[in-house]
Amino acid sequence: NEQPRPHDEL
Amino acid sequence: MNIFRLAGDMTHLLSIVVLLLKIRTTKSCAGISLKTQELYVIVFITRYLDLFTRYVSFYNTAMKLVFIGTSVAIVWYMRLHKVVKQTYSRDEDTFKHYLLIPPCFILALLIPLEFTVTEILWSFSIYLEAVAILPQLLLLQRSSNIDNLTGSYVFLLGAYRALYIVNWVYRFFTETHKIRWIPWISGLVQTALYADFFYYYIKSWKNHEKLRLPA
After folding, report:
1. Tens of pLDDT along B60-98?
2. Cβ of A8 and B57 within 8 Å?
3. Does B51 touch chain A (CB under 8 A)?
4. Is residue B52 within 8 Å of B179, Cβ to Cβ?
5. Nearest C-alpha in A relative to B125
6. Do B37 and B88 form a contact (C-beta atoms < 8 A)?
7. I want to staple B11 with a disulfide (CB 3.0 to 4.6 A). Which of B66, B90, B160, B185 is the partner?
């Protein structure tokens, strides 16, 4: 159960 | 955004500036792997598809566009610029980079973040970025003469990955307390690939010697 990615990261 | 993340992004940006500086001022791309640069174009385009679907910040959008634009520009110089392309180390840049693409894609299908097109391609870009430096490292091993700008470029690129790991550790304790296997493991693999290079780079810097990697 991978956490959703933080969309602020490049 | 924390200081490690910003330092990582700035190091990444600086590595690209150094590479473009080398290409534009010396009109030479000797020692630079076109294979690695082509993989980066694929990495950035597949990762930043969310440019069209999600707005995060001006910084985020600008950086994504810069990474896509500069990677395309570098490949353009190496393939099409009439002077620069003649300096390409074609005979030594022999890593079969296209062979890296199918396994990364299959891995992204097997272990995606979510089963949607953008998240599968995002996972693919993470896996591909982890190994995209391999042709460049192989080329450095084969180069008898690594110039300072090329050495600095690869060092800054490795430093960016190392700083991202510090950023994740910091974020884990200060923000989320959540585990993120896909980028963490890929990021650790990616940084580990630089270990050998770092060792010889720092050694040559300390001893004021020219950088050479043992084959």
Report:
1. 999 999 999 999 999 999 999 999 999 999 999 999 999
2. yes
3. no
4. no
5. A10
6. no
7. B160
